[in-house]
Amino acid sequence: MKKLRDNVATRHFNASKFSLERGESTTFDCHADHEMLFVFSGVGEVTYGDGTLSTEQLTPGDMILMPPFAAHLIENTGAQTLVMGNVWWEDRQTIDERVKAPKCERRPRVVLPSFTTPNGRMHLGHLAGPVVAADIFTRAQRALGFDCYQLCGSLGFQTHVGITAAREGRSYRETSRTYSDDFLANYRLLKIDFDVFATLDELPRFEEIAREFLTALDAGGHLIEKTTRVPYCEHGHGYLFEANVRGLCPHCGEKISSECENCGLFVPDEELVDPVCNHCHRAAAWRPLKRMFVPLEPHRVVLERLLMSGAYVGKMPDFVAKVLQQKLPNIPLGISSSEGVALPFRGQEDLKLYSAVELVPRFLTAQDMLASSTELGSGEVELALFFGSDNAYLRCIIFPILLHLFDASRFHIVGFFANEFYQLDGYKLSTSRGHVIYADDLIRQGIPADWLRLYVCHTRPAVAATSFSLGEAFDWIERRRRRLASVIQIISNAVETHHRGTVPEPGTWERLHRAFYQQLCERRHEGRRLFSVEGFEPRQIAELIDRLLRDLDRFAVESLHSRYHPGIERAACALSLVGLRLWATLGWPVMPELCTAVLARLGSRETPCLNRALQWVPAGRSFDIGGWAA
Ligand SMILES: [Zn+2]
Ligand SMILES: [Zn+2]
């Protein structure tokens, strides 16, 4: 026997003893090992879970077991030192099971792509960023059997829209409506299947929800009142916020308006360097302004939990970790602007709700519209966000904390999907410089909407900027369209020539058939992973659809011809049709119209489902592709 003083490492496990002083806590930890924890002395709390977190008391003698991938944090809440021991070990079988089936809850899912600012037409950059990816995600969740809803819109107030309205000689409402109509036209063109499209027509509901939200923040003791200096134009343009001011970022020195697209960090009004009025282009002065603020710092644990839950994707975990290295800022509730929701606080009525804070009431309004048009009650929902990385601070930092302060239990954010810029011929898209391309132009030039969706999915700027070029897009799409048409032609000829136009029973299987069947099972499995919230990756989905089409092409060409035994050809024919059916099922979230048409010709008319095993096309039905054009 040996009395243990230090850390222990054996072949099967490790062990150690540690202590936390009063008020001290561990950082969140989340690992593949099993961990057993023991409380020797002192009291505290453990916060733990996979996705949703719970908290429990710790007292001397307690013994707790953390399964793999349960995030956990221990805090000393007592007056004495909290002394604990732990033992950890690896159990590969449990790890594999947890990785395969990460969650068993099936709460409804709500998808929220950032509302596009209604101050210009929707161009290909918007579509290739949040719009198409959010739609693919929504449809993919439905194919996995989830109740999934998509909330879109243009609701809200931003000074950028006011500036466009003044330039175009229209009212704010008219400007917002004109561009919202353009967004809707684009959504219809690209088959975006949204459940709600919230616009300023919902203003009364929006104002009521915004007031309710602000009152709840106030009642919860989450607001402070503070006077800070604010850029001010002494030449008649008053207090300068958002699109009315420019200057240098205090963090990275980049030329910015009020938000920094370069480093993505929050710029408090009083810290903007060398502010200039955007109306008269003269240096701004500073004036004190008394406002209400929400301090984010007391709620950093909300972000730490999300970080540990794996909800941040791509470059976002590093971004959030970088933000968390410093004290979180106070976010002002109001700015001075001619348009917006007036703050419901005494002495603040002249100020309008700041757009960063407005994100929550915008979402709650769309959610309320959804609840009144669907079966969705007031139960818990999982929320997936799609946004450009220039909105990372708003979406990853401000939105989750403010939503949590309003309702800590109902909304579970399960995915933060960001995108970088989508360029045109290697340069940033810019409406003002005319370097821009619209979906309707491309469709008019002969690219069908479904294939455009596949192409922007294939070139999605998930972690780095990518570029669109018309020539490349045409070639890429043309090759795939021809391949699909050829595959369908080969299968159809086989059905026609050997089976008088009806689908045969699968006959005699050779090695080639078994290998193809196995390949299809693997592709289906891979599709389920890429469609899931944990594995969602549009570029890989596009690649999978492409790969499956090549597999199918190769198999059909190699195996669909007369053989010494007619049963062998029958098996090849039936398997080719299974492959085509799987292709259309996996392709449906990306290319809904085309795949729905293919599935209909294979006799399947319901929403494609990826939860069932591979489906045969029923023997005896006709496979008629007369008049078909992919
Ligand atoms: Zn910056
Ligand atoms: Zn000015």
Structure notes:
By secondary structure, this protein is an alpha+beta fold. Among the domains are: 8-100, Jelly Rolls, CATH 2.60.120; 478-601, Isoleucyl-tRNA Synthetase, Domain 1 (Orthogonal Bundle), CATH 1.10.730.10. The protein is built from 16 helices and 25 strands. The protein has a 5-stranded antiparallel β-sheet, with no helix packed on it. A 5-stranded parallel β-sheet has the order 11-10-9-21-22, sandwiched between helices. A 4-stranded antiparallel β-sheet has the order 13-12-17-18, with no helix packed on it. Strand 23 and strand 24 (427-428) form a beta hairpin. Helix 5 packs across helix 8 (355-373), helix 7 packs across helix 9 (392-406) and helix 13 (511-531) packs antiparallel against helix 14 (538-559). The longest helix is centred in the C-terminal third of the chain and has 30 residues, at 470-499. Bound molecules: zinc ion (2 copies). One zinc ion binds at residues 233, 235, 237, 277, 279-280, 282. One of its GO terms (molecular function) is methionine-tRNA ligase activity.
> What is the CATH class designation of one domain?
Mainly Alpha
Rg over alpha carbons:
28 Å
End-to-end distance: 75 Å
**Topology, number of strands:** 25
General form: globular
Strand order of the largest sheet: 1-2-8-3-6
The portion of residues forming beta strands comes to 15-25%
CATH topology of one domain: Isoleucyl-tRNA Synthetase, Domain 1
Mean pLDDT across all amino acids: 92
Profile the largest sheet. 5 strands, antiparallel
Query: CATH homologous superfamily of one domain, by name?
Result: Isoleucyl-tRNA Synthetase, Domain 1
Helix content: 25-40%
| Oligomer kind | single chain
CATH architecture of one domain: Orthogonal Bundle
Report low-confidence residues grouped into runs of 5 or more.
Answer: none
Question: What molecules are bound to this protein?
Answer: zinc ion
Number of helices: 16
Class by helix and strand content?
A: alpha+beta
